[in-house]
Amino acid sequence: MVNRIDVTFEAAREAGTSVLAPFITVGFPDVETSEEIAAGLLKSGGDMLEMGIPFSDPLADGPTVQKTNMQALRNGVNVSTCLGVVRNLRKRGVGSPLVLMGYFNPFVRYGQTRLVADAAEAGVDGLIVPDLALEEGVGFARLCEERGLYLIPMLAPTSTDRRVGLACKGAKGFIYCVSLMGVTGARPALRYEAAARLVERIRRHTDVPVLVGFGVSSRAHIEEIARFADGAIVASAMLDAVGEAPPEMAVQTARQFVVGLKRSSG
Question: What is the layout of strands, in order, in the sheet containing 126-128?
Answer without folding.
Answer: 150-151, 126-128, 98-101, 49-52, 19-25, 231-234, 210-213, 175-178, 154-155
